[in-house]
Amino acid sequence: MRSLLRNLIVHRSGIVDAKFKDMSHCKETIGQEYDIPDGQQEIYRKVAEATGIALIKAADEALQV
């Protein structure tokens, strides 16, 4: 489910499509924004923040030639 949700967020901006609906059995209708539970929202926010910081550090190190 984790990669399915990731793909929905990254590639569909969180908008439920037929594939996600069929595979997840979510309550949202096709075309509606998926409601990520509060606990998961915080986890995804922290991961996105850490990933962004790591990317900036890697870019900064690469530019310090």
Can you put this structure into words, describing what you see?
The protein has about 60 residues and is mainly α. The protein has two domains: about 1-35, no CATH class; about 35-65. It contains three helices and no strands. The chain starts with a helix and ends with a helix. The model has no long low-confidence stretch (mean pLDDT about 90).
Topology:
Elements: H1 2-12, H2 18-24, H3 38-63
Features:
0% strand, 2 domains, 68% helix, 65 residues, elongated, 3 helices, mainly alpha
In short:
The protein has 65 residues and is mainly alpha-helical.
Helix-residue proportion: 55-70%
The percent range for strand residues is under 5%
User: What's the N-to-C terminus distance?
Assistant: 41 Å
The whole-number mean of residue pLDDT values reads 92
Envelope shape = elongated
**Biggest sheet overview:** none
Tally the beta strands: 0
Low-pLDDT windows of residues: none
Radius of gyration: 16 Å
Number of domains: 2
Structural class based on helices, strands and sheet pairing: mainly alpha
Number of helices: 3
Order of helices and strands: HHH
